[in-house]
Design brief:
- By secondary structure, this protein is an alpha+beta fold.
- The protein has a single domain, classed as Heat Shock Protein 90.
- The protein has a 4-stranded antiparallel sheet with strand order 1-2-4-3.
- Strand 1 and strand 2 form a beta hairpin.
- The longest helix is centred in the middle third of the chain and has 11 residues.
- It starts with a strand and ends with a strand.
- The mean pLDDT is 95.
């Protein structure tokens, strides 16, 4: 199951995308925002999705973080300044 929530925090808006999947192994969490990093077999992914998302959020003065627990799920947290 994937869920999305939003919240206003002072001068920021927070968007959370959460799943209850298998989580991301700790050994690769630090690499997931790197360009061309993928866990998919050759030819089945560019490894650009999270890297591009990270760059877009940063370009707008925001922050993109990940919190994950193996066998429990993952949460991506985006924070952007309000106008």
């Amino acid at each position: 199951t994937v869920s999305i929530s939003t919240k206003k925090l002072n001068e920021k808006v927070e968007i959370k995308v959460t799943d209850n999947g298998s989580g991301i192994p700790q050994k690769i969490v630090d690499k997931i925002f790197q360009p061309f990093f993928t866990t998919k077999p050759t030819g089945q992914g560019t490894g650009l999705g999270l890297s591009l998302a990270y760059d877009i959020v940063k370009a707008h003065g925001g922050e993109l973080k990940v919190e994950t627990k193996e066998r429990e799920g993952t949460e991506f947290i985006i924070q952007l300044a309000t106008v």
